[in-house]
């Protein structure tokens, strides 16, 4: 099954492909069978129709979500990254349609996703039993990685946040001795006023006026 790269992009962007999600209880034991019980009928039907498809089964394991997806594609990128397809293939090119297995969980690895190529849609259709056996084998390995990741998460020591070093208190500033302000007493020297000269008023002797007596004629 081949498809033009541009046609593939258009179909995914227009959301005309087959898709569905199934929520399941946490399998106990945590094995592939419960996931495949949901995914196998839907994927088989899409292969029979030669249709693009994406089917997922969701559950939780040790409090974390685990998503198992079987998806058709032309590169090993989930369809949610459809805008990046042209970085790998020429838009005018014809590409083989493959089936990929994606397991998404924070427990599966550091990147949070494992990608496995199952094979081409054509091979899947011709050798369905072998193809499903490969899906189960790879999914089992991925689920074991989830279990190992959960175990490591439990055993990991809880990091106690380090206390910030106490800030050293600044040494109290020495008080500078207050300078005594000695107020000098002003010595007021009063200049002695010069002695006032006594003004002696000389008495002018009154001139005696002698009136001459007139002689008798």
Distance between the termini: 195 Å
Shape: globular
* Residue-averaged pLDDT: 82
Number of strands: 7
Helicity level: 25-40%
The largest pleated sheet is described as: 5 strands, mixed
What topology, given as strand order, has the largest sheet? Answer: 2-3-4-6-7
Run of helices and strands: EHEHEEEEEHH
**Unreliable stretches covering 5 or more consecutive residues:** 185-217
- The SS-based structural class is alpha+beta
Total DSSP helices: 4
How are the SSEs ordered, and which strands pair?
Elements: E1 2-4, H1 5-13, E2 18-23, H2 33-49, E3 53-61, E4 64-73, E5 94-96, E6 98-104, E7 113-120, H3 121-126, H4 128-155
Parallel strand pairs: 2-3
Antiparallel strand pairs: 1-5, 3-4, 4-6, 6-7
Main features:
217 residues; alpha+beta; two-stranded antiparallel ribbon; disordered C terminus
Question: Could you characterize the architecture of this molecule?
Answer:
The termini are far apart. The longest helix has 28 residues, at 128-155. Helix content is 28%, strand content 21%. The strands form two sheets. It has a five-stranded mixed β-sheet with strand order 2-3-4-6-7. A two-stranded antiparallel sheet has the order 1-5. A hairpin with an 8-residue loop joins strand 6 and strand 7 (113-120). It has helices at residues 5-13, 33-49, 121-126, 128-155; strands spanning 2-4, 18-23, 53-61, 64-73, 94-96, 98-104, 113-120. With 217 residues, it is α+β, with helices and mostly antiparallel strands.
């Amino acid at each position: 099954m081949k498809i033009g790269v541009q046609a593939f992009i258009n179909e995914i962007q227009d959301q005309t492909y087959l898709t569905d999600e199934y929520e399941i209880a946490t399998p106990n034991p945590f094995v592939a069978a419960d996931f495949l019980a949901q995914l196998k009928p839907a994927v088989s039907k899409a292969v029979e129709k030669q249709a693009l498809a994406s089917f997922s089964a969701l559950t939780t394991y040790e409090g974390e979500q685990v998503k198992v997806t079987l998806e058709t594609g032309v590169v090993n990128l989930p369809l949610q990254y459809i805008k990046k397809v042209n970085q790998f293939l020429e838009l005018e090119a014809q590409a083989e349609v493959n089936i990929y297995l994606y397991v998404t969980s924070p427990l599966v690895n550091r990147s949070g996703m494992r990608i496995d190529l199952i094979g081409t849609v054509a091979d899947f259709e011709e050798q369905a039993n072998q193809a499903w056996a490969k899906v189960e084998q790879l999914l089992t390995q991925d689920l074991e990685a989830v279990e190992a990741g959960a175990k490591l998460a439990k055993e990991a020591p809880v990091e106690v946040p380090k206390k910030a070093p106490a800030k050293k208190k600044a040494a109290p500033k020495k008080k500078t001795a207050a300078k005594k302000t000695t107020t000098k007493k002003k010595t007021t020297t009063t200049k002695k006023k010069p002695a006032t000269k006594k003004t002696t008023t000389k008495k002018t002797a009154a001139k005696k006026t002698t009136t001459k007596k007139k002689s008798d004629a």
